[in-house]
Input
Amino acid sequence: MAIHAEGLVAIVIFYVLILFVGIWAAWKNKNAGVSDGGDRSESIMVGGRDIGLFVGGFTMTATWVGGGYINGTAEYVYLPDFGLAWAQAPFGYALSLVVGGLFFAKPMRSRGYVTMLDPFQQLYGKRMGGLLFIPALMGEIFWSAAILSALGATLSVIVDININMSVVISALIAIFYTLVGGLYSVAYTDVVQLFCIFLGLWISVPFALSNPAVSDIGVSAKEVIYQSPWLGKIDPEDKWLWADNFCLLMLGGIPWQVYFQRVLSASSATYAQVLSFLAAFGCLVMAVPSVLIGAIGASTDWNQTTYGARPPKDKDESDMILPIVLQHLCPPYISFFGLGAVSAAVMSSADSSILSASSMFARNIYHLAFRQSASDREIVWVMRFTIFVFGALATAMALLTGSVYGLWYLSSDLVYVIIFPQLLSVLFVKGTNTYGSVAGYIFGLLLRIGGGEPYLKLPPFIYYPGWVNQEKLHHLTGNVEYFVQQRFPFKSVSMLASFLANVVFSYLTKYLFESGMLSHKYDFLDAVVSKHSKEIMDKATLVANHDNIILSEMAPVRQTLGASLAGTFINTEVLSDDGGSSPEAFHNEN
Output
Protein backbone atom coordinates (compact mmCIF):
# COMPACT_ATOMS: atom_id res chain seq x y z
CA MET A 1 0.00 0.00 0.00
CA ALA A 2 1.42 3.36 -1.03
CA ILE A 3 1.79 6.26 1.35
CA HIS A 4 -1.33 8.46 1.19
CA ALA A 5 -0.21 12.06 0.75
CA GLU A 6 -3.64 13.36 1.74
CA GLY A 7 -3.51 11.38 4.97
CA LEU A 8 -0.06 12.70 5.82
CA VAL A 9 -1.20 16.27 5.15
CA ALA A 10 -4.26 15.76 7.37
CA ILE A 11 -2.10 14.40 10.20
CA VAL A 12 0.43 17.22 9.90
CA ILE A 13 -2.31 19.88 9.95
CA PHE A 14 -3.93 18.29 12.97
CA TYR A 15 -0.66 18.00 14.91
CA VAL A 16 0.34 21.60 14.10
CA LEU A 17 -3.09 22.78 15.30
CA ILE A 18 -2.76 20.86 18.58
CA LEU A 19 0.78 22.15 19.13
CA PHE A 20 -0.32 25.72 18.45
CA VAL A 21 -3.24 25.52 20.89
CA GLY A 22 -1.03 23.97 23.57
CA ILE A 23 1.63 26.70 23.28
CA TRP A 24 -1.03 29.43 23.13
CA ALA A 25 -2.70 28.12 26.29
CA ALA A 26 0.65 28.05 28.09
CA TRP A 27 1.41 31.64 27.03
CA LYS A 28 -2.09 32.90 27.84
CA ASN A 29 -2.03 31.48 31.34
CA LYS A 30 1.67 31.74 32.16
CA ASN A 31 1.03 33.94 35.19
CA ALA A 32 -2.33 32.47 36.25
CA GLY A 33 -2.44 31.57 39.92
CA VAL A 34 1.10 32.90 40.47
CA SER A 35 0.28 36.61 40.47
CA ASP A 36 -2.00 36.07 43.49
CA GLY A 37 0.84 34.68 45.57
CA GLY A 38 0.44 31.07 44.51
CA ASP A 39 3.11 28.58 43.59
CA ARG A 40 4.07 27.95 39.98
CA SER A 41 4.19 24.19 40.64
CA GLU A 42 0.64 24.17 41.94
CA SER A 43 -0.48 26.22 38.95
CA ILE A 44 0.95 23.58 36.63
CA MET A 45 -0.74 20.77 38.57
CA VAL A 46 -4.20 22.23 39.15
CA GLY A 47 -4.31 25.19 36.78
CA GLY A 48 -4.59 27.89 39.43
CA ARG A 49 -7.93 26.34 40.47
CA ASP A 50 -9.83 28.49 38.00
CA ILE A 51 -10.80 26.01 35.26
CA GLY A 52 -14.29 27.00 34.10
CA LEU A 53 -17.27 24.79 33.29
CA PHE A 54 -16.75 24.83 29.52
CA VAL A 55 -13.05 23.95 29.42
CA GLY A 56 -13.34 21.77 32.54
CA GLY A 57 -16.22 19.74 31.12
CA PHE A 58 -14.34 19.17 27.88
CA THR A 59 -11.06 18.20 29.50
CA MET A 60 -12.68 15.79 31.96
CA THR A 61 -14.65 14.14 29.15
CA ALA A 62 -11.60 13.94 26.88
CA THR A 63 -9.61 12.26 29.64
CA TRP A 64 -11.95 9.25 29.56
CA VAL A 65 -12.79 9.35 25.85
CA GLY A 66 -9.40 8.12 24.72
CA GLY A 67 -8.12 5.74 22.07
CA GLY A 68 -8.95 2.72 24.21
CA TYR A 69 -12.45 4.03 24.85
CA ILE A 70 -13.55 4.57 21.23
CA ASN A 71 -11.63 1.62 19.79
CA GLY A 72 -12.58 -0.75 22.62
CA THR A 73 -16.28 0.14 22.48
CA ALA A 74 -16.39 -0.51 18.72
CA GLU A 75 -14.46 -3.77 19.17
CA TYR A 76 -16.79 -5.24 21.79
CA VAL A 77 -19.92 -4.30 19.85
CA TYR A 78 -18.42 -6.01 16.79
CA LEU A 79 -17.20 -9.23 18.46
CA PRO A 80 -19.73 -12.08 17.94
CA ASP A 81 -19.39 -13.50 21.47
CA PHE A 82 -19.85 -10.14 23.19
CA GLY A 83 -21.83 -7.38 21.45
CA LEU A 84 -23.31 -4.24 22.99
CA ALA A 85 -24.24 -6.13 26.17
CA TRP A 86 -20.52 -6.48 26.98
CA ALA A 87 -19.48 -2.98 25.82
CA GLN A 88 -19.52 -1.75 29.41
CA ALA A 89 -17.10 1.17 29.20
CA PRO A 90 -19.59 3.93 28.19
CA PHE A 91 -22.09 3.22 30.97
CA GLY A 92 -19.44 2.12 33.47
CA TYR A 93 -17.31 5.24 33.13
CA ALA A 94 -20.36 7.51 32.98
CA LEU A 95 -21.63 6.07 36.28
CA SER A 96 -18.10 6.34 37.65
CA LEU A 97 -18.16 10.08 37.02
CA VAL A 98 -21.62 10.38 38.57
CA VAL A 99 -20.56 8.49 41.72
CA GLY A 100 -17.34 10.49 41.86
CA GLY A 101 -19.29 13.74 41.59
CA LEU A 102 -21.84 12.76 44.21
CA PHE A 103 -19.51 11.42 46.90
CA PHE A 104 -15.83 12.16 46.24
CA ALA A 105 -15.47 15.48 44.39
CA LYS A 106 -16.74 17.74 47.18
CA PRO A 107 -14.63 16.43 50.10
CA MET A 108 -11.48 16.31 47.95
CA ARG A 109 -11.93 19.82 46.51
CA SER A 110 -13.20 21.43 49.72
CA ARG A 111 -10.13 20.36 51.67
CA GLY A 112 -7.89 21.99 49.07
CA TYR A 113 -5.78 18.96 48.14
CA VAL A 114 -3.42 19.21 45.18
CA THR A 115 -3.15 15.52 44.22
CA MET A 116 -5.10 12.35 44.91
CA LEU A 117 -2.31 11.07 47.21
CA ASP A 118 -2.49 14.05 49.60
CA PRO A 119 -5.15 12.60 51.94
CA PHE A 120 -3.25 9.30 52.14
CA GLN A 121 -0.02 10.99 53.16
CA GLN A 122 -1.90 13.27 55.50
CA LEU A 123 -3.45 10.40 57.46
CA TYR A 124 -1.16 7.41 56.84
CA GLY A 125 2.22 9.13 56.47
CA LYS A 126 4.74 9.53 53.68
CA ARG A 127 5.82 5.89 53.53
CA MET A 128 2.29 4.65 52.90
CA GLY A 129 1.81 7.43 50.38
CA GLY A 130 4.84 6.10 48.53
CA LEU A 131 3.40 2.57 48.51
CA LEU A 132 0.08 3.80 47.11
CA PHE A 133 1.96 5.78 44.48
CA ILE A 134 3.15 2.53 42.88
CA PRO A 135 -0.21 1.19 41.57
CA ALA A 136 -1.30 4.75 40.72
CA LEU A 137 1.86 5.30 38.65
CA MET A 138 1.55 1.89 36.98
CA GLY A 139 -2.01 2.67 35.94
CA GLU A 140 -1.10 6.02 34.39
CA ILE A 141 2.04 4.84 32.55
CA PHE A 142 0.58 1.58 31.24
CA TRP A 143 -2.58 3.40 30.13
CA SER A 144 -0.49 5.92 28.15
CA ALA A 145 1.58 3.11 26.63
CA ALA A 146 -1.52 1.12 25.66
CA ILE A 147 -3.17 3.99 23.82
CA LEU A 148 0.06 5.02 22.09
CA SER A 149 0.39 1.42 20.92
CA ALA A 150 -3.19 1.57 19.61
CA LEU A 151 -2.35 4.75 17.70
CA GLY A 152 0.52 3.06 15.88
CA ALA A 153 -1.71 0.17 14.84
CA THR A 154 -4.45 2.54 13.67
CA LEU A 155 -2.11 4.65 11.55
CA SER A 156 -0.74 1.51 9.92
CA VAL A 157 -4.26 0.60 8.77
CA ILE A 158 -5.19 3.91 7.18
CA VAL A 159 -1.86 5.48 6.19
CA ASP A 160 1.15 3.38 5.26
CA ILE A 161 3.76 5.21 7.31
CA ASN A 162 6.32 4.00 9.80
CA ILE A 163 4.49 3.00 12.98
CA ASN A 164 7.38 3.79 15.31
CA MET A 165 7.83 7.25 13.83
CA SER A 166 4.13 8.10 14.17
CA VAL A 167 4.04 6.99 17.81
CA VAL A 168 7.23 8.90 18.69
CA ILE A 169 6.05 12.11 16.99
CA SER A 170 2.63 11.93 18.67
CA ALA A 171 4.22 11.36 22.08
CA LEU A 172 6.77 14.16 21.59
CA ILE A 173 4.07 16.69 20.72
CA ALA A 174 1.96 15.71 23.75
CA ILE A 175 5.03 15.80 26.03
CA PHE A 176 6.16 19.18 24.67
CA TYR A 177 2.96 21.14 25.24
CA THR A 178 2.46 19.43 28.61
CA LEU A 179 5.99 20.47 29.59
CA VAL A 180 5.36 24.06 28.54
CA GLY A 181 1.90 24.70 29.94
CA GLY A 182 0.95 21.95 32.38
CA LEU A 183 -2.76 21.53 33.05
CA TYR A 184 -3.68 24.66 31.08
CA SER A 185 -2.19 23.30 27.86
CA VAL A 186 -3.69 19.86 28.46
CA ALA A 187 -7.14 21.33 29.16
CA TYR A 188 -7.26 23.67 26.17
CA THR A 189 -5.94 21.06 23.73
CA ASP A 190 -8.56 18.68 25.10
CA VAL A 191 -11.26 21.06 23.85
CA VAL A 192 -9.86 20.87 20.31
CA GLN A 193 -9.24 17.14 20.52
CA LEU A 194 -12.73 16.32 21.75
CA PHE A 195 -14.21 18.41 18.95
CA CYS A 196 -12.05 16.51 16.42
CA ILE A 197 -13.16 13.15 17.84
CA PHE A 198 -16.83 14.11 17.67
CA LEU A 199 -16.62 15.62 14.19
CA GLY A 200 -14.35 12.95 12.72
CA LEU A 201 -16.42 9.98 13.86
CA TRP A 202 -19.84 11.47 13.15
CA ILE A 203 -18.80 12.49 9.63
CA SER A 204 -17.67 8.92 8.96
CA VAL A 205 -20.80 7.12 10.24
CA PRO A 206 -23.28 8.16 7.45
CA PHE A 207 -20.82 7.19 4.71
CA ALA A 208 -20.16 3.80 6.30
CA LEU A 209 -23.89 3.15 6.80
CA SER A 210 -24.65 3.92 3.16
CA ASN A 211 -21.99 1.56 1.79
CA PRO A 212 -23.64 -1.18 -0.36
CA ALA A 213 -21.79 -3.91 1.56
CA VAL A 214 -23.49 -2.93 4.84
CA SER A 215 -26.83 -4.49 5.80
CA ASP A 216 -29.49 -2.81 7.91
CA ILE A 217 -27.98 -2.56 11.40
CA GLY A 218 -31.49 -2.61 12.87
CA VAL A 219 -32.00 -6.11 11.46
CA SER A 220 -28.51 -7.40 12.32
CA ALA A 221 -29.03 -6.25 15.92
CA LYS A 222 -31.45 -9.12 16.53
CA GLU A 223 -30.96 -11.56 13.66
CA VAL A 224 -28.03 -13.52 12.31
CA ILE A 225 -26.90 -12.15 8.95
CA TYR A 226 -23.11 -12.39 8.68
CA GLN A 227 -22.48 -13.15 12.35
CA SER A 228 -24.25 -13.19 15.72
CA PRO A 229 -26.53 -10.20 16.51
CA TRP A 230 -24.47 -7.22 17.63
CA LEU A 231 -26.72 -6.46 20.63
CA GLY A 232 -25.17 -9.51 22.28
CA LYS A 233 -26.36 -11.33 25.37
CA ILE A 234 -25.24 -12.22 28.87
CA ASP A 235 -25.34 -15.95 29.57
CA PRO A 236 -26.50 -16.96 33.07
CA GLU A 237 -23.12 -18.49 33.92
CA ASP A 238 -21.41 -15.18 33.04
CA LYS A 239 -23.61 -12.83 35.07
CA TRP A 240 -21.19 -12.55 37.99
CA LEU A 241 -18.26 -11.99 35.64
CA TRP A 242 -20.24 -9.22 33.92
CA ALA A 243 -21.13 -7.63 37.26
CA ASP A 244 -17.51 -7.82 38.43
CA ASN A 245 -16.25 -6.06 35.30
CA PHE A 246 -18.97 -3.41 35.57
CA CYS A 247 -18.11 -2.64 39.20
CA LEU A 248 -14.47 -2.42 38.17
CA LEU A 249 -15.33 0.29 35.65
CA MET A 250 -17.84 2.13 37.84
CA LEU A 251 -15.88 2.20 41.11
CA GLY A 252 -12.37 1.58 39.81
CA GLY A 253 -12.73 4.59 37.50
CA ILE A 254 -12.80 6.96 40.48
CA PRO A 255 -9.36 6.72 42.20
CA TRP A 256 -7.30 8.05 39.29
CA GLN A 257 -5.19 11.18 39.45
CA VAL A 258 -6.38 12.16 35.95
CA TYR A 259 -9.89 12.48 37.38
CA PHE A 260 -8.99 14.25 40.59
CA GLN A 261 -6.64 16.62 38.77
CA ARG A 262 -9.73 18.03 37.04
CA VAL A 263 -11.77 17.97 40.25
CA LEU A 264 -9.05 19.84 42.16
CA SER A 265 -8.62 22.40 39.38
CA ALA A 266 -12.27 23.52 39.62
CA SER A 267 -12.90 26.93 41.17
CA SER A 268 -15.16 25.46 43.87
CA ALA A 269 -16.43 22.15 45.21
CA THR A 270 -19.79 22.68 43.56
CA TYR A 271 -18.11 23.31 40.21
CA ALA A 272 -16.11 20.10 40.69
CA GLN A 273 -19.35 18.16 41.09
CA VAL A 274 -20.94 19.79 38.05
CA LEU A 275 -17.85 18.99 35.95
CA SER A 276 -18.21 15.32 36.86
CA PHE A 277 -21.86 15.25 35.80
CA LEU A 278 -21.11 17.07 32.52
CA ALA A 279 -18.32 14.61 31.74
CA ALA A 280 -20.64 11.66 32.46
CA PHE A 281 -23.07 12.95 29.84
CA GLY A 282 -20.20 13.65 27.45
CA CYS A 283 -18.88 10.09 27.77
CA LEU A 284 -22.25 8.64 26.77
CA VAL A 285 -22.63 11.00 23.81
CA MET A 286 -19.10 10.29 22.54
CA ALA A 287 -19.68 6.53 22.69
CA VAL A 288 -22.60 6.59 20.23
CA PRO A 289 -20.53 6.76 16.99
CA SER A 290 -18.22 4.01 18.27
CA VAL A 291 -21.23 1.76 18.97
CA LEU A 292 -22.59 2.46 15.49
CA ILE A 293 -19.22 1.71 13.85
CA GLY A 294 -19.02 -1.60 15.74
CA ALA A 295 -22.57 -2.43 14.60
CA ILE A 296 -21.63 -1.51 11.02
CA GLY A 297 -18.65 -3.86 11.17
CA ALA A 298 -20.91 -6.68 12.36
CA SER A 299 -23.39 -5.98 9.52
CA THR A 300 -20.87 -5.91 6.66
CA ASP A 301 -20.26 -8.45 3.92
CA TRP A 302 -16.51 -8.00 3.83
CA ASN A 303 -16.26 -9.98 0.60
CA GLN A 304 -17.74 -6.93 -1.17
CA THR A 305 -15.09 -4.57 0.20
CA THR A 306 -11.42 -3.95 -0.49
CA TYR A 307 -10.62 -5.59 2.86
CA GLY A 308 -11.01 -9.14 1.53
CA ALA A 309 -13.23 -12.17 1.90
CA ARG A 310 -12.34 -13.02 5.50
CA PRO A 311 -13.85 -10.69 8.12
CA PRO A 312 -11.58 -8.96 10.68
CA LYS A 313 -12.60 -11.38 13.45
CA ASP A 314 -11.13 -14.26 11.44
CA LYS A 315 -7.84 -12.39 11.05
CA ASP A 316 -7.51 -11.52 14.76
CA GLU A 317 -8.02 -7.86 13.87
CA SER A 318 -11.22 -7.21 15.80
CA ASP A 319 -9.42 -4.69 17.97
CA MET A 320 -8.92 -2.51 14.89
CA ILE A 321 -12.49 -2.66 13.60
CA LEU A 322 -12.91 1.12 13.90
CA PRO A 323 -10.02 2.10 11.59
CA ILE A 324 -10.88 -0.83 9.28
CA VAL A 325 -14.43 0.48 8.85
CA LEU A 326 -13.08 3.98 8.21
CA GLN A 327 -10.58 2.69 5.68
CA HIS A 328 -12.71 0.25 3.68
CA LEU A 329 -16.27 1.54 3.99
CA CYS A 330 -15.70 5.30 3.71
CA PRO A 331 -14.21 7.49 0.92
CA PRO A 332 -10.50 8.25 1.44
CA TYR A 333 -10.97 11.91 2.38
CA ILE A 334 -13.55 10.89 5.00
CA SER A 335 -11.31 8.20 6.49
CA PHE A 336 -8.65 10.84 7.08
CA PHE A 337 -11.12 12.79 9.23
CA GLY A 338 -11.61 9.63 11.23
CA LEU A 339 -7.84 9.20 11.51
CA GLY A 340 -7.64 12.67 13.01
CA ALA A 341 -10.34 11.64 15.48
CA VAL A 342 -8.38 8.58 16.62
CA SER A 343 -5.15 10.58 16.91
CA ALA A 344 -7.00 13.20 18.94
CA ALA A 345 -8.43 10.57 21.26
CA VAL A 346 -4.99 9.12 21.89
CA MET A 347 -3.28 12.43 22.59
CA SER A 348 -6.10 13.68 24.81
CA SER A 349 -5.57 10.73 27.15
CA ALA A 350 -1.79 10.37 26.90
CA ASP A 351 -1.02 13.96 27.90
CA SER A 352 -3.38 13.78 30.89
CA SER A 353 -1.86 10.56 32.24
CA ILE A 354 1.72 11.79 31.87
CA LEU A 355 0.92 15.05 33.67
CA SER A 356 -0.90 13.17 36.44
CA ALA A 357 1.98 10.79 37.06
CA SER A 358 4.55 13.61 37.18
CA SER A 359 2.34 15.68 39.51
CA MET A 360 2.13 12.85 42.05
CA PHE A 361 5.85 12.17 41.89
CA ALA A 362 6.98 15.80 42.15
CA ARG A 363 4.64 16.66 45.02
CA ASN A 364 4.04 13.51 47.04
CA ILE A 365 7.31 11.64 46.53
CA TYR A 366 10.03 14.21 45.85
CA HIS A 367 8.72 17.16 47.83
CA LEU A 368 6.73 15.76 50.76
CA ALA A 369 8.67 12.52 51.26
CA PHE A 370 12.29 13.46 50.46
CA ARG A 371 12.82 17.20 49.99
CA GLN A 372 10.39 19.14 52.16
CA SER A 373 12.67 22.17 51.94
CA ALA A 374 12.57 22.16 48.13
CA SER A 375 11.80 25.52 46.53
CA ASP A 376 8.87 26.01 44.20
CA ARG A 377 11.27 26.44 41.26
CA GLU A 378 12.96 23.13 42.11
CA ILE A 379 9.61 21.31 42.21
CA VAL A 380 8.69 22.77 38.81
CA TRP A 381 11.91 21.47 37.26
CA VAL A 382 11.48 18.05 38.87
CA MET A 383 7.97 17.95 37.44
CA ARG A 384 9.16 18.91 33.95
CA PHE A 385 11.90 16.29 34.10
CA THR A 386 9.47 13.55 35.15
CA ILE A 387 6.98 14.57 32.43
CA PHE A 388 9.72 13.82 29.92
CA VAL A 389 10.84 10.62 31.69
CA PHE A 390 7.34 9.17 32.11
CA GLY A 391 6.42 10.17 28.55
CA ALA A 392 9.55 8.48 27.20
CA LEU A 393 8.85 5.39 29.34
CA ALA A 394 5.27 5.10 28.04
CA THR A 395 6.50 5.54 24.44
CA ALA A 396 9.20 2.90 24.85
CA MET A 397 6.70 0.44 26.30
CA ALA A 398 4.30 1.11 23.43
CA LEU A 399 7.03 0.29 20.90
CA LEU A 400 8.85 -2.55 22.65
CA THR A 401 6.36 -4.41 24.87
CA GLY A 402 3.93 -6.84 23.29
CA SER A 403 1.80 -7.26 26.41
CA VAL A 404 1.19 -3.59 27.18
CA TYR A 405 -2.59 -4.07 27.25
CA GLY A 406 -2.24 -6.91 29.72
CA LEU A 407 -0.07 -4.72 31.95
CA TRP A 408 -2.69 -1.98 31.84
CA TYR A 409 -5.55 -4.38 32.63
CA LEU A 410 -3.67 -5.68 35.67
CA SER A 411 -2.65 -2.21 36.89
CA SER A 412 -6.21 -0.85 36.51
CA ASP A 413 -7.41 -3.82 38.57
CA LEU A 414 -4.87 -2.92 41.26
CA VAL A 415 -6.15 0.67 41.29
CA TYR A 416 -9.64 -0.71 41.94
CA VAL A 417 -8.63 -3.36 44.45
CA ILE A 418 -6.05 -1.33 46.41
CA ILE A 419 -6.55 2.43 46.00
CA PHE A 420 -10.36 2.62 45.94
CA PRO A 421 -10.88 0.99 49.38
CA GLN A 422 -8.06 3.15 50.78
CA LEU A 423 -9.78 6.27 49.40
CA LEU A 424 -13.07 5.18 50.97
CA SER A 425 -11.34 4.69 54.30
CA VAL A 426 -9.43 7.94 54.34
CA LEU A 427 -12.43 10.09 53.38
CA PHE A 428 -15.37 8.40 55.08
CA VAL A 429 -14.18 6.09 57.89
CA LYS A 430 -12.94 7.62 61.12
CA GLY A 431 -10.11 5.92 62.94
CA THR A 432 -8.24 4.05 60.21
CA ASN A 433 -4.46 4.14 60.53
CA THR A 434 -1.28 3.08 58.77
CA TYR A 435 -1.39 -0.50 60.08
CA GLY A 436 -4.84 -1.01 58.59
CA SER A 437 -3.74 0.63 55.35
CA VAL A 438 -0.79 -1.76 55.01
CA ALA A 439 -2.99 -4.77 55.78
CA GLY A 440 -5.59 -3.67 53.20
CA TYR A 441 -2.85 -3.14 50.62
CA ILE A 442 -1.43 -6.65 51.15
CA PHE A 443 -4.83 -8.38 51.22
CA GLY A 444 -5.99 -6.69 48.02
CA LEU A 445 -2.72 -7.34 46.20
CA LEU A 446 -2.55 -11.05 47.06
CA LEU A 447 -6.20 -11.76 46.32
CA ARG A 448 -6.03 -10.00 42.93
CA ILE A 449 -2.68 -11.42 41.80
CA GLY A 450 -3.85 -14.82 43.03
CA GLY A 451 -6.66 -14.81 40.48
CA GLY A 452 -4.16 -14.67 37.59
CA GLU A 453 -4.20 -12.55 34.43
CA PRO A 454 -4.70 -14.28 31.04
CA TYR A 455 -3.45 -11.24 29.08
CA LEU A 456 -0.06 -11.58 30.77
CA LYS A 457 -0.21 -15.40 30.78
CA LEU A 458 -0.04 -15.15 34.58
CA PRO A 459 -1.50 -18.38 36.00
CA PRO A 460 -3.67 -18.22 39.13
CA PHE A 461 -2.61 -19.66 42.46
CA ILE A 462 -6.06 -19.04 43.94
CA TYR A 463 -8.86 -20.89 42.15
CA TYR A 464 -12.07 -19.12 43.04
CA PRO A 465 -15.46 -20.92 42.92
CA GLY A 466 -16.79 -21.40 39.38
CA TRP A 467 -13.45 -21.27 37.56
CA VAL A 468 -13.32 -22.93 34.15
CA ASN A 469 -10.67 -23.83 31.59
CA GLN A 470 -11.12 -21.87 28.36
CA GLU A 471 -9.43 -21.99 25.00
CA LYS A 472 -8.73 -19.23 22.51
CA LEU A 473 -8.03 -19.93 18.83
CA HIS A 474 -5.55 -17.65 17.06
CA HIS A 475 -6.91 -17.65 13.52
CA LEU A 476 -3.74 -16.55 11.75
CA THR A 477 -1.42 -19.14 13.31
CA GLY A 478 -3.97 -21.83 14.15
CA ASN A 479 -2.55 -22.05 17.67
CA VAL A 480 -4.91 -22.76 20.55
CA GLU A 481 -4.26 -20.94 23.82
CA TYR A 482 -5.60 -22.42 27.06
CA PHE A 483 -6.27 -20.28 30.10
CA VAL A 484 -8.24 -20.25 33.37
CA GLN A 485 -11.28 -17.98 33.48
CA GLN A 486 -12.42 -16.87 36.92
CA ARG A 487 -16.21 -16.46 36.72
CA PHE A 488 -16.40 -15.61 40.40
CA PRO A 489 -16.40 -11.79 41.02
CA PHE A 490 -13.00 -12.03 42.65
CA LYS A 491 -11.93 -8.47 41.80
CA SER A 492 -14.82 -6.92 43.71
CA VAL A 493 -14.40 -9.45 46.52
CA SER A 494 -10.69 -8.53 46.69
CA MET A 495 -11.65 -4.84 46.91
CA LEU A 496 -14.12 -5.49 49.74
CA ALA A 497 -11.57 -7.66 51.56
CA SER A 498 -9.01 -4.87 51.26
CA PHE A 499 -11.48 -2.36 52.70
CA LEU A 500 -12.49 -4.62 55.60
CA ALA A 501 -8.85 -5.47 56.35
CA ASN A 502 -8.06 -1.75 56.57
CA VAL A 503 -10.91 -1.08 59.03
CA VAL A 504 -10.44 -4.23 61.16
CA PHE A 505 -6.66 -3.99 61.52
CA SER A 506 -6.86 -0.24 62.21
CA TYR A 507 -9.25 -0.71 65.11
CA LEU A 508 -7.45 -3.84 66.33
CA THR A 509 -4.04 -2.14 66.52
CA LYS A 510 -5.62 0.94 68.11
CA TYR A 511 -7.22 -1.24 70.81
CA LEU A 512 -4.04 -3.28 71.43
CA PHE A 513 -1.82 -0.23 71.86
CA GLU A 514 -4.25 1.93 73.83
CA SER A 515 -5.23 -0.92 76.18
CA GLY A 516 -1.57 -1.67 76.92
CA MET A 517 -1.73 -5.23 75.55
CA LEU A 518 1.05 -4.17 73.17
CA SER A 519 3.92 -2.03 74.39
CA HIS A 520 4.11 1.46 72.90
CA LYS A 521 7.63 0.75 71.70
CA TYR A 522 6.21 -1.62 69.08
CA ASP A 523 4.31 1.20 67.36
CA PHE A 524 7.07 1.37 64.76
CA LEU A 525 4.84 3.10 62.17
CA ASP A 526 3.98 5.93 64.59
CA ALA A 527 0.34 5.36 63.71
CA VAL A 528 -1.35 5.06 67.12
CA VAL A 529 0.80 6.05 70.09
CA SER A 530 2.65 8.86 68.37
CA LYS A 531 -0.50 10.61 67.18
CA HIS A 532 -0.01 13.00 70.10
CA SER A 533 3.64 13.70 69.32
CA LYS A 534 4.95 16.80 67.62
CA GLU A 535 7.59 14.58 66.00
CA ILE A 536 5.22 13.78 63.14
CA MET A 537 4.94 17.37 61.99
CA ASP A 538 6.54 16.23 58.73
CA LYS A 539 3.20 14.69 57.78
CA ALA A 540 1.87 18.22 57.45
CA THR A 541 2.25 20.91 54.77
CA LEU A 542 -0.11 19.20 52.36
CA VAL A 543 -2.72 21.82 51.63
CA ALA A 544 -1.96 25.35 50.45
CA ASN A 545 -4.13 28.26 51.54
CA HIS A 546 -3.87 30.38 48.46
CA ASP A 547 -6.29 28.48 46.29
CA ASN A 548 -9.77 29.73 45.53
CA ILE A 549 -11.75 27.78 48.12
CA ILE A 550 -15.04 29.18 49.34
CA LEU A 551 -14.81 29.64 53.10
CA SER A 552 -18.04 27.79 53.76
CA GLU A 553 -16.55 24.73 52.08
CA MET A 554 -13.31 24.72 54.03
CA ALA A 555 -12.49 21.73 56.22
CA PRO A 556 -11.54 22.64 59.79
CA VAL A 557 -7.76 22.79 59.41
CA ARG A 558 -5.35 25.10 61.22
CA GLN A 559 -2.53 27.19 59.84
CA THR A 560 1.00 26.46 60.96
CA LEU A 561 2.98 29.16 62.75
CA GLY A 562 6.48 28.67 61.41
CA ALA A 563 7.68 31.32 58.98
CA SER A 564 9.09 28.70 56.65
CA LEU A 565 5.69 27.05 56.50
CA ALA A 566 3.67 30.21 55.99
CA GLY A 567 0.88 29.69 53.56
CA THR A 568 0.34 26.02 54.38
CA PHE A 569 -2.16 24.01 56.36
CA ILE A 570 -1.86 20.84 58.37
CA ASN A 571 -4.22 18.03 59.19
CA THR A 572 -4.59 18.22 62.95
CA GLU A 573 -6.19 14.76 63.19
CA VAL A 574 -2.73 13.23 63.32
CA LEU A 575 -1.78 15.59 66.15
CA SER A 576 -4.84 15.65 68.40
CA ASP A 577 -7.95 13.77 69.39
CA ASP A 578 -10.41 16.61 68.93
CA GLY A 579 -11.78 14.97 65.78
CA GLY A 580 -11.56 18.34 64.02
CA SER A 581 -10.58 16.96 60.66
CA SER A 582 -12.32 13.62 60.81
CA PRO A 583 -14.73 12.66 58.03
CA GLU A 584 -17.64 13.05 60.44
CA ALA A 585 -16.58 16.49 61.54
CA PHE A 586 -16.15 17.56 57.95
CA HIS A 587 -19.68 16.46 57.05
CA ASN A 588 -21.11 18.17 60.15
CA GLU A 589 -19.46 21.40 59.16
CA ASN A 590 -21.23 21.23 55.83
In short: DSSP finds 20 helices and five strands in the chain.
